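DM from R.C. (forwarded with permission)

"hey, sorry to bug you on a friday — could you get me a structure for this? deadline for the figure draft is monday and I only need the backbone to look sensible"
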Amino acid sequence: MRSVQKSLSTASKHVQARSFHRSAAANFKVAVVGAAGGIGQPLSLLMKQHPLVTELSLFDLAPVTPGVAADLSHIDTKAKVTGYTGAENLENALDGCDVVVVPAGVPRKPGMTRDDLFNINASIVAGIASAAAKKCPKASLLVISNPVNSTVPIMAEVLKKEGVYDPTKLFGVTTLDVLRSNTFVSENQGMDPTTTKVTVVGGHAGTTIVPLLSQVAGASFSDADRDALTQRIMFGGDEVVKAKAGGGSATLSMAVAGAQFADRVMRAKSGEEGIVECAYVQSEVMPGCAFFSSPITLGKDGVQEIHGVGEVTEYEQGLLDDMLPELIKQVEKGVEYAKNN
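My reply, with the result:
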């Protein structure tokens, strides 16, 4: 029996090692805001298991949050977990954090677009930005709350008002679009999903999501497959919402995506070089569009370099041209909200 237990323990540690790169020793305090929700709980679990996290601060308005923290605290990793609930404790939860991951807000339901979420989630994100400005002004802020195309500009404007805005430390997490692309493309091409790499640019909603399939190494697509894959990647979130039949939106896959991007940010902070990920950041890649998702190189202080879209096909350029006015509109919607509230 002890032999079986030892084997299981060893297997568990191998899984952890595969999930997160073992960087040089570093100590980070990470907050998950919205930690009791469908994304927040599995995301918090992944952060508790992360080797670079020594303090994990969980916040949610839901009264169950201290219980989530207590539950996670029984896992045998070095991260100390504290749970906070109630709006009056948001600043306490963020105090001194190095990384803040924000899945807070209401999820999408069938028939609901990301724009439908705006009026609810906009005020939530603005409040989080204000608290972060006071308690962890130098933290890397990773925004998952939809609609990301608008919530990231809202957070930027609030941070500007507070005098602490650093565009190299504010990220819209678009990693799920990349994970979906890697999965769908590998299925189509008979490739290994763990080594398939798809660059996804633009925004994080519907047609603003543009996968650059022409840049996938070793892949060849018929026009029909290209069109079908592009459509599926753009609206992969709707696929999950429909399949859950009123039970919510993408939570588990989004938690993995959020944890993966947080991992890359922390690895870069700890000194690892050459980390390139797609993310939605303040950018000049597309003229007239203040925020855009494209490959970025991460460094100790956040965004080190923003890369362009590279060489694209006529088809992909058409997608970019068609979606750009809508993305600009969504960015401006966030900016206007922050200025008027």
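R.C.: lifesaver. The chain has two domains: 22-172, 175-340.
me: no worries. The radius of gyration is 19 Å.
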